[in-house]
Fold this protein.
Amino acid sequence: MSEERVGFFTDTSVCIGCKACEVACKEWNAIPEDGLSLTGMSYDNTQALGASTWRHVAFIEQPTPEGRTQLPLAEGDSGADSGMRWLMSSDVCKHCTHAACLDVCPTGSLFRTEFGTVVVQEDICNGCGYCVPACPYGVIEQRPADGRAFKCTMCYDRLGVGQEPACAKACPTESIQFGPLDELRERAALRVDQLHETGVTEAHLYGDDPEDGVGGDGAFFLLLDKPEVYGLPPDPVVTTRDLPTMWKHAGAAALSLLGGVALSFALAGKGRR
Amino acid sequence: MVPRAEFESYYGRPVIKAPAWAARDIAGYFFLGGLAGAGSVLAAGAHLTGRGTTATAMKVSSLAAVSLSAAALINDLGRPDRFANMLRVFKPTSPMSVGSWLLSLYGPTAGAAAASAVTGRLPRVGAAATGAAAFLGPAVAAYTGVLAADTAVPAWHGAHRELPHLFTASATAAAAGMALVVGPTCENAPARWAGGLAALAETAVTEAAERRLGTVAETYREGRAGVLLRTARALTVAGALGGAVLGGRCRAGAALSGLALLTGSACTRFGIFAAGIASAEDPRYTVVPQRERVERRQQGAGASGA
Ligand code: SF4
Ligand code: SF4
Ligand code: SF4
């Protein structure tokens, strides 16, 4: 990594669900349309990250947690508690420190850039699809008509010329903050303290810990509920962490196969055929 | 019955993405790779012990199986024309890369063994190739277990210690079945033993995997996977018993038992494949085990902090 490692801190407590990030990403990266359907489940008609959706805004409508008061939003608003609240969160590829997609890619198409991000090289990917089930967050996906795998590049082209990614640039509330990862982690810790002081005790960071199962995310989040409520795994682990164990068992299994067949020939005996 | 664990999710949507692999191609690839790999070991044994007909037939079977398996793998690529990129790098962290290299060594070896056996030419080279294929074959049969397990798919990764053993046992059953189908009865005693041992091993390993998987083991018992895996067990046990009782005496009995073993092995691979897809598509199997892990850790921290 020749440059400083950069990333995203997505502060979901200020997300207003405008989807400007989704649109900016589609526009900048010229991502094809992938269905205009109404889910009926919420205002979220995008549904999930995928080959042609690199930013996805989740909408969760839920009862307000006990003990929270709702502040009046505008003058004249009585501030009457509706008993409900909205959680909105813009999800993206985590650019994992230990990225399973990159580890398992047999062609070397997925690689780690000088910015510490994870990018697919479209001219090398042969569409083997191994990265898809390897990602613990369900981010990367093959585009059916194309066959190859696609995901967020953290706007590799923009980073190269000193620009911030399109989604962060478009975000009107600074819910999506882009910058050097170390700085973002400090800023995020301060933001959590601030929220705790104002009584939002459920605010917590997700993916910020370099000791977690993926070595920390390059894109981490401030959440107001459990990760799984947002469709995120509560304790993701990079599958290749267990790969040495798997190879050991494969070696033992291969030897047992040899031994088992040798035993079968011994039991059958040479004379009896 | 234990009540099902409560869990939260985003409108019931899956957390991880299931592979877009076609069952026919990839489960078929697991089956054919196993049949080829374990078949090469049986072929070498038959070669060494003078069971000539079986040896030749098994060499041909392995060549056919490995060729079909490679075709299935290439067919499943999103960009089949770029299959050569598989050998662009060697990556030990990618079981698919390791497997591609392994296949590119094993395939020609199996081919040379079969060609020499059928034509009778270059018997020394044929014998060396037979030996080499017998050493590479078990690796070909075992690595596919790692290929499946090295993913975030709960039913596969959760059983990452057992899957390679399950796959080699299933491969042995398939190869023993093939030897019973193609070999004369006077030569098939080793195949009958191998079929019996494989059936025992497969049953024991499947049970160990299900014990370890906990809640996720439901995906091995329910739906399409459940039907396939129950059928697999019935066919494998029937094939092994049939082989032991009838295989040495009656040609038809041997062939039927062999077919049962072969079909049983195929059902095992398609069953494990289906269980993996089911476990990826239901957020329960991703969230519940991870949530339990978090809670265990928090309790541990709480206990040591107190
Ligand atoms: S989130 Fe998934 S796709 Fe993104 S870097 Fe991590 S493993 Fe790869
Ligand atoms: S689909 Fe492409 S990027 Fe994904 S693992 Fe295969 S070659 Fe690599
Ligand atoms: S960083 Fe660029 S590619 Fe990634 S989600 Fe934002 S706009 Fe899209």
Q: What stands out?
A: Chain A touches chain B through 79 residues (CB under 8 Å). The mean pLDDT of chain A is 93.
